[in-house]
Amino acid sequence: MKLVPAMFCIAFFCLPNVQAQRRGNSQFIPFSEVGIAGGASFYLGELAPPNQAFQSFSLSPRWNVGGSFTRHLTPSFSARASLTLIRLAGDDYTFNKDEPNGHPAQFQRNLHFRNDLKELALSGIYQFIPEGRRPNQRPAFTPYLTLGVALVAHNPKARTPVNADGSLGDWVALQPLGTEGQGQPGYAKPYSLLTAAIPVGAGMRWQLTESLNLAAELSFRYTFTDYLDDVSGFYPNPGDLPSALSATMSDRRAEPIAARTGDDRTKALSTLYAVSPDVRRGLPGNDFYILAQLSIHYLIPPSVIKCPTFRR
User: Fold this and answer.
1) Which domains does the chain have, with CATH numbers?
2) What does UniProt give as the signal peptide span (predicted)?
3) Mean pLDDT across the chain
4) Hey, which residues does 200 pair with through a beta bridge?
């Protein structure tokens, strides 16, 4: 079994070196770097509509942190593996509290969530200014583009209603509750807590020292799920749900208090335009998220990753 990872390492790290040796010493020498990153994350979905993206970004930014390994394979192309921890959040009340009649159905719905994602991604990077022959001859600045695939583990949660003493409720996982009837007879299967995503991004990289780079990157994630927020379809029949908690977390339109913040909704509800009681709980269409990151990278000296020398 040890043969497989060894073959992978040879293919990923050493074959580009072999090609460079065969082309002559004047050619590019592949090199690697490790990095740490952090920044802001933004959710777009039912609770933060994409057509109101600027408002969504200003109201519900959260955080992300991660690490990466990058292999520079050619002067312009690199491959990057990254692991990122991401928090996303959305809240109907926060999105509409200053103008409840701007989106009356959303304000009345009164749903919220937070979701801590674990994203494992493999991306290709194309940089517009090529590397020099050696790592210390790289450009002082270069813009770049990224495209890849990612595997994302997630678990949306929400607060239970505010307690009688006014304290905020507990965060509970929503998927096991089947808030849209998932898993019950006549309803869909429970949604998966594992999904794929397509990361697409652009960034800028600066050389800080001979061994350090600084990068700023903005990247968009299209996911293959509509349940990052636990909201997608119709309100189920409360009697079909498996527990009282499921029914409570499914339909929160009658709650006078916004459960996430503890704010009183009574006055705004009394002035709300009439909303059809048959309104959907969610809308079809997958969810998205966006990461804005700053990262710092350490260049691994080529001598650290030793490859065999091939003679002609």
Assistant:
1) 3-21+29-300 (2.40.160.20)
2) 1-20
3) 88
4) 147, 220
**Sign for the pseudo-dihedral over CA of 55, 263, 231, 61:** positive
Confidence of residue 294 (pLDDT cuts 50, 70, 90): very high
One-letter identity of residue 203 = G
How far the first Cα of the chain sits from its last, in Å, is 31
Q: What are phi and psi of 239, to 5 degrees?
A: -70, -15
Residue whose structure tokens are 């959710």 = 43
CA distance linking residue 202 with residue 58, whole number of Å: 21
Encoded tokens for 251 = 């339909």
Calpha distance 201→30 (Å, rounded): 23
Rounded to whole angstroms, the Cα distance separating 133 from 72 reads 11
Burial class (CB in 10 A: 0-12, 13-18, 19+), 58: exposed
pLDDT, mean of residues 257-272:
90
Q: Which two tokens stand for residue 203?
A: 């960034």
In the chain, the amino acid numbered 141 is F
Q: Token digits for 130?
A: 């090529």
Summarize pLDDT for 88-126 with one digit per residue, the tens: 999 999 988 888 888 888 899 999 999 999 999 999 999
Dihedral sign (CA 232, 236, 242, 245)? positive
Six-digit token pair at 282? 């969610």
At residue 310, does pLDDT exceed 80?
no
Q: What is the pTM of this model?
A: 0.86
Residue with tokens 């009574």: 266
Spatial neighbors of 181 by CB under 8 A, at least 6 apart, are: 187, 188, 236, 237, 240, 241
Q: What's at 77, amino acid-wise?
A: F
As a whole number of angstroms, the distance between CA 280 and CA 86 comes to: 28
Q: What is the mean pLDDT of residues 240-256?
A: 95
pLDDT in tens, 130-179: 988 887 888 999 999 999 999 999 999 999 999 989 899 999 999 999 99
Collapsing DSSP to helix, strand or coil, 178 comes out as coil
Angstrom distance (rounded) from CA 59 to CA 90: 9
